[in-house]
Each structure stands twice: as structure tokens, then as C-alpha cells.
Amino acid sequence: SSKIQSTRVGMDAAAIKQSILEHLVHTQSRFPDVASESDWYNALAHAVRDRMLERMMVTAKTYKANKSRTVCYLSAEFLPGPHLANNILALGIWQEVQEAVAQLGLDFESLLEEEVEPGLGNGGLGRLAACYMDSMATLKIPAIGYGIRYEFGIFRQEIEDGWQVEKTDKWLSYGNPWEIPRPRLRFNVHFGGHTEQFKDIDGILRVKWIPEWRVIGVAHDTPVMGYGVKNTNLLRLWSSEAAESFNFQAFNTGDYYGAVNEKVTSENLTKVLYPNDEPEAGKRLRLEQQYFFVSCSLQDMVRIYLQSGDPLDQFHHKYTAQLNDTHPAIAIPELMRLLVDRNQMDWDTAWHVTRNTFAYTNHTLLPEALEKWPLDLFKKVLPRHLEIIYEINSRFLDEARMKIHGLNGHLEKLSIIEEGARPQVRMAHLAVVGSYKVNGVAELHSELLRQNVLPDFHALWPDKITNVTNGVTPRRFMLLSNQPLAHLLRERIGCGWVTDLDSLHKLEALADDPDFQQQWQKVKRRNKERLARHALAATGQKIDPDSLFDVQVKRVHEYKRQHLNLLHIITLYNRLKDNPGLDIPPRTFVFGGKAAPGYFMAKLIIKAINSVAEVINRDPDMDGRLRVVFFPNFNVKTAHCIYPGADVSEQISLAGKEASGTGNMKFALNGALTVGTLDGANIEIREEVGKENFFLFGMTEAEVSALQQQGYHPQDYCQNDPELKSALDFLASGYFSHGDATLFRPLVDNLLNGDPYKVLVDYRSYVDCQARISEAYRDRQEWTRMSILNVARMGKFSSDRSIQEYTNNIWKIASVDVF
Ligand SMILES: CCc1ccc([C@H](C)CC(=O)N[C@@H]2O[C@H](CO)[C@@H](O)[C@H](O)[C@H]2O)cc1
């Protein structure tokens, strides 16, 4: 076999130590006595990388030899998190690396701290893509993740005077040992211009696209290792380069700016991630970014395919491509262009190939997050694709007209083109028409997709819209980030759970075992102490692990209702001020999450949380009773110490708004108990863990839409609930803002005169539920039992189960052993 017997990939501590020292000299060109922590980190990273590369090459060779059917996961966002620890675990050399590092007198934890994570995503959608990449490799599914190598990822969040401040994320400034540049893997991507029709040699009418400008897309590969298997898949990210990096004509005429203008504009394409999570910006650069990575990815897939020598009209047998929301949906007309215009395939065959290649996952119901591109903008950027979309749409409407055989205006609602003052392209409709399968990300969400968002498509194609409930990888979110728990589990139920999460069920039998409960509480205690240490380092605020840690971490958005959590805190504060003798278990409220920079209300909510925290944390009456901290820069790395340290997981979105949630799964898998509404995957978590082990409150989705129908007057709820009224009055009064009664006026007004996310309706039910939680927390034995049963029954929420469902129900793809 082509295995290279390299001495530099030994898996024992001595070989690893040797590798680290060799990389310190040969890669970092530093002697040990002058090496910085970052030099040692890079040396270790390269030593680990060495032990991954051959697996990556053997994997590619095996897939090629087997002509394996491959899934391409097209996503504008990936949030892989820091790589070092995860790769060491996947290689199974955790002990050996610990030993090597110790022998070199280095501190492993602080080496891990050196890594800056690739923040190439906003939140749930991007992290899910990363969990799925981990599971596809672990399940030995041939897969390629295709995305954008943003030079600047999601902004680093700092809190100044309680306000979010965005700092540029220069994640690449110290280099990135985990990517392999592929400078020769480059594709032209064209933009703008116009199209011309012509007859080809056989007299067939063809269309030529004369673009206005082009850029070059260059690949950068990051190996994604499966856990406990040899399979190492690829995350292939594209960055843009200027076709012509220097325009001498312009330079010679002294137009120095002109000389480099193309270079600048071209590189701007992949300069920065759009930090919006839900409301879409509709910006031209965003559309160009989407087309750029999609065109590079499809050209790369066709390149790999043509190496097989198989006919292109069988392309969909080799590949299936998953569209991670509508962001890559332009892939549908782009594949049509590559097949028809570039490879002279006839339209019908090309359309058959295309609609049997793509599947589409929807991640949001919020109308403002469903992407629509104005026709005029689309025509300017992608004139040929607009023509193809017109053709797809007219043929689709013909098919629909026949099938519906009714003239009741359904066609207008189905059309990919939204008529009106400023006609738009509905990317969700294009994605549904051009895909063989569509799925939501939790049962309620998929049902609401069928009933509310895509009812006409559901009527037209009753079995096209299915469900695959989200999942999370137990490798990063248990084994890696909660080692005390992992050790206890290994001791009591073995290690099978790491790749077979259902085997957590074995814990059921231990739920009432006093000794095991003891050990369980010790594990949680250690994780709370770790969270307290990180919170102190990040905020300067001391928090007491003896108190109940009540945690809400996720993007800040009104539908996620961080402000409902805040109203409960103010209520508790008022109760304790009014009645210092009130006996409630001490509570520490931990918040974390970024707000889209342009989202005023979300940023005001962050300010309100920090303002309330400031008053409570320095109020002597609250010592040992109440503490509030806002953990800055919530990301995958900080999540490692937050999820394991929580007692209570806040999943309090308005029912019908959170498509699934994945943080809810990570908390429960780390022994936190959930307070939540019947929304997204909360419903399925409650079904699995048992109603008695879940703190439920609030309206159901049906009650929400009924209230919406009948009309809602938030003031009524305020008038009828003195505690609610007083909490709002306190917020409005300036009590928490140094007497400035104007600062939070917009927030309170928004709640009293609209309250689109029905905070005031669910307030009472929430506050009462929280009181139940306080009572439950008094009985540590019962609480611990509920915590153990939660973990025992969360097996369903492994991303391995999700990927198994995609594989069996959508992709129809086989796993491939790599030796
Ligand atoms: C166009 C701007 C934009 C950017 C990102 C998005 C994402 C779809 C938002 C997102 O991350 N949605 C979350 O996806 C998770 C993974 O499926 C779900 O668990 C969350 O409920 C959903 O909010 C929408 C619109």
C-alpha cells in the first residue's frame, strides 16, 4: 500500500515530544529557551496535524477508488470551534500528549488557550454544520463541507459600560496550522455583464454569458477527523483573489488607486462574515459571497466527477448536496448553467440531474429571515442565473397548474418570483422547487413549515417536506468540554456512549444510588467552580458555586426573550428588597450572547442586563442571595466551560419561533435541568427526559396563534399583575440606569405597546415556574436524580442520530471503511 512509514507520526508520548521539539525548530524556528506560549502551541498543533494528514490522504484515495457517493454540505457558515483538543481526542492520544507536554514542562490548559477559534458563523446554523461534519466523519460517510474562508469572522464582543462593542476578529493574524492551502485549486467566478443568444454548430440555440468582472476562488482544506475511525473528511473553504492583482495600464497613467482597485474589490468578497442572525441584510456583497462559494464548490464537484470518466447525466448518483438554509440556494441555477451552458446538456436532463442533487434544510420561520433578492439587483449581479430562474419558474408553474387544476391564485403564492412594486426572487421557493427533499430541524418546526410557511408546496408535494431533528456532537460537548463527567461515565457505564449516545440509558439504574449521586454532584460542583473562575477572569465578578447557576446563552434576539428572563430577575430582586427574610435558594444568573450590530433592541437588552447586574451585584442586601453576570464573547470556546457549569438551562423562546435550538441539548447532556416553553426541540427533549424532569411554562404555539388572531393587548397583562407592573416600572424609572428614565424607555414601550413576542403573557407562568425550580433545588437528592435522568434519556440528541436519519431518509448514502 502507499503508506509512508514516517518516523514523525509515532503515537507514543516520546514520539510526540520529539515532534513538538522538531516543529519548534523546523516550523517555528525557535529554541525552547526563547519560545513563547504561542510558539509551543504551534509546535504542538503541527505535531498533531502531522498525525492527521496521512489519514486525510488515504481517505480521499479510498473514496476515489470506491467511487463513493459523496454528500456535499454547502453552508455559508461553519463554527468548528478550537481544533487542537478535538483532534487529539479523535486521534486517541490524549494521555500521550498530556505526558509529552508535561515532560516539556508546559501547561496543557494554557496551550489550549492560545488557539483562536475560526468564528466563521453566527450561531445555531453554523455550529450545527460543524457538529454534522464531525458526525459524518465518525459515521464514515464520504462528505465534503464547502464554505467561505472569511478573513474576519464573527466580531469579538467586548462589554464597555454595559454596552456591546464589536471588535474585529483577526483570527488569521497568527497563522492557522489546521488548514492546508491549495493554491493550485482555483476557479474563475464571474459577475455582472449580460447574456447573448447564439446558435451552436448543431444549430441549437444557446446562451453566452458575457460577464463584467471575475475573481478567482482558491481552496483551503481543513481535515475533519472522525472519532475512533480513520475516516478524515474535508472542510474546503474558498477565499477570493483578484484575477488581475495589478493593473499596469492604470499604474502607468498614475492612477495608483485604479491599479490595485480590482485587487481590493476582489479580496473584499471573502473579507468578512455578515454578523446578522435572522434579519437578512439583502446587501449586494452578501449575494456575491453566496454565489462565489457556490460556484467554486460546484465547479470543484464537477472537476472531481469528470475524473471518474462517468457521464455527467449521472452526476446526481455520485453527489448529493445539502443546502444549509437558502444562503447557498443559488447553487440550483448555477448547476443548471454548468450543465447546460458549459457542458451542452439539454435542459430536461440537466433539470432532472439538478433537482435530484439538492436537498434543502430550513432553519427559521421568521419571515424577516427568509431571503428575497430584488430582481434588479439579481439581474445586475447574475443576469444569466436570473434567466435560468425564469425558465425554472415558468416550467414549474406549468407543472403546478396542471397538478392543481384550479385557478384559485395558488400559483402566485407558489411562484419563485414575488410580483409587486419591487419584484423579488424568493430563495426559499427556489430551494423547494429545485430540491428532491426539504426538511425542518425539529418536529414542531417541520409541521409549521408544512402548515404555515410552505402550505401550497406541501399540498403540491405532500411527501417532500420531512423532519430531521437537530443534534449535537457528544465528542466536543461532553467528552472534550466535560472531562469530570466523561471520567465518571467511563467508570460507571464504559465509553460506548461517545459514539452510541443511547447507551447513556444505563445511567437510569444509578439515578437513585446515593454514592453515584454524590459523585454526580461533585462533577457538577467542579464544573461550576471552573465556570466561576472563567466568569471572574472575564467580568471581574465573583459568583458562588453554592448558588443555583441559571444560564441563558445564545444570540440575543427578542424571540429568544432574554428580556423575559430579566423581568424575572427584577421581580426576585423586588421580592427580596420588600421581604429580606424571603427564603429562596441563592441564585446566579449567567447570560451570554452576541447581538447583530444593527439590531438596536437586542443591544439595549444587553445594556439592560448589565445595568440590572451592576445594581444587584453591588447591593449588600443581595449578598449571598442574587448575582447576575453577562459573560462576554460567547462562542464555541467559552461554551466549553459554560454548558457543564449550569444547573438550569433557559430555553424560553415564544412557542413557534425557535426552529429547534441546540444549546438546549448541550445543557441537558451536561446535567442541567431545562426551564422552557413547548417550542422547537424543547418539546422532544421533554418527551425523552419525562414531563416530571422538565420545568414547563408558557403558551403553546396554538395558543400563541390563537391570541394573535383574537388580538393582544399587553397593557391588560400589566394592569392585572402588580409584580409585572412594578418590574416594568422599575426598569422604566431609571432605577437601574443611574436615574436616567429615558434609557430603557424604548424597551418598556416595546413591551407595553406591541410586545410582538408576548413576554407579558408568559411572565406570570414563567415566574411561578421559577418558584417551582427554587423549591425543587432545595431537595438536592431529588434534583440530582432529575439531572441524572436527564442525561440518561438525552441519547436521541446526538448529531450521529441526525446524520443517520439524513443518510437513511434523504441522502441514501453508504458509509465507507478506511483502513
Ligand atoms: C440572512 C441572515 C440569516 C443568517 C442566519 C440565519 C440562520 C438560519 C439563523 C440560525 O442560525 N437559525 C438557527 O438554526 C439552528 C440550527 O438549525 C436552530 O437550532 C435554531 O433554532 C435556529 O434559530 C438566518 C438568516
From TrEMBL:
<dbReference type="GO" id="GO:0008184">
    <property type="term" value="F:glycogen phosphorylase activity"/>
</dbReference>
<comment type="similarity">
    <text>Belongs to the glycogen phosphorylase family.</text>
</comment>
<dbReference type="GO" id="GO:0005737">
    <property type="term" value="C:cytoplasm"/>
</dbReference>
<keyword id="KW-0321">Glycogen metabolism</keyword>
<keyword id="KW-0119">Carbohydrate metabolism</keyword>
<protein>
    <recommendedName>
        <fullName>Alpha-1,4 glucan phosphorylase</fullName>
        <ecNumber>2.4.1.1</ecNumber>
    </recommendedName>
</protein>
<dbReference type="InterPro" id="IPR035090">
    <property type="entry name" value="Pyridoxal_P_attach_site"/>
</dbReference>
<keyword id="KW-0328">Glycosyltransferase</keyword>
<comment type="function">
    <text>Allosteric enzyme that catalyzes the rate-limiting step in glycogen catabolism, the phosphorolytic cleavage of glycogen to produce glucose-1-phosphate, and plays a central role in maintaining cellular and organismal glucose homeostasis.</text>
</comment>
<dbReference type="Pfam" id="PF00343">
    <property type="entry name" value="Phosphorylase"/>
</dbReference>
<dbReference type="GO" id="GO:0030170">
    <property type="term" value="F:pyridoxal phosphate binding"/>
</dbReference>
<comment type="function">
    <text>Phosphorylase is an important allosteric enzyme in carbohydrate metabolism. Enzymes from different sources differ in their regulatory mechanisms and in their natural substrates. However, all known phosphorylases share catalytic and structural properties.</text>
</comment>
<keyword id="KW-0663">Pyridoxal phosphate</keyword>
<dbReference type="InterPro" id="IPR000811">
    <property type="entry name" value="Glyco_trans_35"/>
</dbReference>
<dbReference type="GO" id="GO:0005980">
    <property type="term" value="P:glycogen catabolic process"/>
</dbReference>
<feature type="modified residue" description="N6-(pyridoxal phosphate)lysine">
    <location>
        <position position="666"/>
    </location>
</feature>
<keyword id="KW-0808">Transferase</keyword>
<dbReference type="InterPro" id="IPR011833">
    <property type="entry name" value="Glycg_phsphrylas"/>
</dbReference>
